Amino acid sequence: MNMGYKSYEEAYRLSLENPEEFWGKEAEKLHWYKKWDKVLDDSNYPFFRWFVGGKTNLCYNAVDRHALGAKRGTAAIIWESPETGQSRVYTYYHLYKEVNKFAGVLKNLGIQKGDRIVIYMPMVPEAAIAMLACVRIGAIHSIVFAGFSREALADRIDDAKPKLLLTCEAGSRGGKIIKLKNIVDDALEIARERVEHVIILNRGLDPDFPKKEGRDLDWMELLETKGMNYVEPEVLESTDPSYILYTSGTTGKPKGVLRDTGGYMVALHASMEQIYDCQTDRDVYFSTSDIGWVVGHSYIVYGPLLLGIPTILYEGTPVYPDQGVWWRTMEKYGVTCVFSAPTALRILKKFPEKWIKDRDLSSLRYFFLAGEPLDKPTYYWATKTLGTKVIDHYWQTESGWPILSNMPGIEFLPIKPGSPTKPVVGYDLLIVDERGEELPRGQKGILVSRAPLPPGNLMTIYGDDERYKKTYWEVFPGKKLYNTGDYAIEDEDGYFWVLGRADEVIKIAGHRLGTREIEEAVSSHPAVAETSCIGVEDEIKGTVVIAFVVLKESYKPSEDLKKEIAQTVRDKIGPIAKPKAVEMVKMLPKTRSGKIMRRILKGVYEGKKLGDLSTIEDGASIDEVSAAIELMKEELGKK
Ligand code: AMP
Q1: What is the 380 CA–ligand 1 centroid distance (Å)?
Q2: Which CATH number applies to 505-635: 3.40.630.30, 3.30.950.10, 3.40.50.720, 3.30.300.30?
Q3: Cβ(406) – ligand 1 distance below 6 Å
Q4: Is 369's pLDDT higher than 70?
Q5: What residue owns the CA closest to ligand 1's atom 23?
Q6: pTM for this entry
Q7: Average pLDDT, the chain
Q8: Which ligand 1 atom lies nearest to the CA of residue 397?
Q9: Fewer CB atoms inside 10 Å of the end CB: C or N, the chain?
Q10: Whether the CB of 501 sits within 6 Å of ligand 1
Q11: Whose CA is closest to 257, among 242, 248, 241, 245?
Q12: Pairwise CA distance, residues 369 & 390, whole Å
């Protein structure tokens, strides 16, 4: 497919030189109650507005358009829950009925355009139905990942000031029941804000969940008493908000990324075709993320549904009830396009390949990965083992869709393992130094984008325009550059290499090294399944690197192995980068979305207070790391 463009270069150039033409053409593919007056209004820098004057509805485009047309009987949401042993398929028409019913409930509870609704739910189809019902009536959803603690939930409630909170009595992770309603009650105790009602979807997982008379309402009962057959979609301005999604910043207070309606819809629809190379009537999409993250918003729910293809909503981990569960799911539904994270592959790569090799994965066309650097060993392993194209792409909660990627829907560019390829259409990217001066190709610097950003990007930080300006646009005063906060290099072919967050760069004896480069060298050793490296203070060199390593199952820790791994880094990068200490751990501290929390490794090493731990996946990893650090300190002569 080339979407009418001869090459990536042609599409990319048009998107920068004539964004009106480029994005206008994409917007025509969707339904508008009223056509826009202007594709882009950039008069109020840095608050860019897309399809100004246009009127539309995200739910209508994602659901009604298909349900009332040829796709009435085809699959929209395929729910697969290894956690509970359930599967359920919603056709577009069925989804349409359910969304209308729930939109009726919201209307009958007095919810109006602009009201906020917090969703704290696990991966059940009702969560997606609720999202769609919100945008149908112009209510703004704010999903809080159902693995966040009560404090994190309370913070977000206080910021979003919702009228309603939607939850389940319980979720399940790795077969363990998580009592969500108890967490909600605790959060509402701590929060300053009050909600009018809590609506609970009772899944029968926790028979004794607490109920609060008057405030708490039962989801199923409400569908019976307040559901409606049809709720007219609200005719929204393209620039009306669709949702708030909180993400962490450098301070403790989470940032509420505010998304528009029309720009987001157009960007997502275009990305489904141009980046993910999906076609209606051909593809089945499986994003292994969670609706609590931006990937879940864009590529479990809105993106695939806007294109009218089936999307898999998966409740579970990659290893429960066993290590073959993902591959079986892909085989079962003939998945064509997967979107996952490198960390998941690094976990799965530890297990015998038979879990994959015994499955028929011939339907797979692409395996997209994002969220963190894709190290070369994992890239090569995945390409070989999965027998499909593995595509690294780079983006952020703020952008809502990719910033750097191969765009096989337009033209498949040769892959350079370790690079998420080139800028996506609409992004005028460059590498700058600390003062915002453009650096020549080949030099490390900060990855920024010239204004304006393409549609779909955040409108502002909810309730805090000043923070939006300061965080993203005023880092290089007077330059009109969006700061991604990441270090990167553009090579001689125009490929970008992301080196990690700008705050994770290490200077060893004055030499600047990205933690990513060192980690890549460590993980190129055949025994290494996963690693995280940090810089720690050293009297002579200023900083030295220490490496925490998770071994593949078939390897046993030994002093010789540690030396070998350190030597591998010396061989790959040079003596400067050789870790001063290497220690094996069974697991690394990670966020629930799979990002390794280097801050914790550093904090434990430096004996600092660890601060907010609400996002940690497994607290036991801290004990693992602490024990390893004790040994390292002995080795480094710090004790
Ligand atoms: P989040 O908003 O949680 O998605 O995090 C965005 C950050 O994840 C980016 O600023 C990068 O630091 C990192 N990231 C995302 N995708 C990639 C990738 N493909 N390669 C390297 N880093 C990535």
Answers
A1: 20
A2: 3.30.300.30
A3: no
A4: yes
A5: 372
A6: 0.85
A7: 93
A8: 2
A9: C
A10: yes
A11: 245
A12: 7
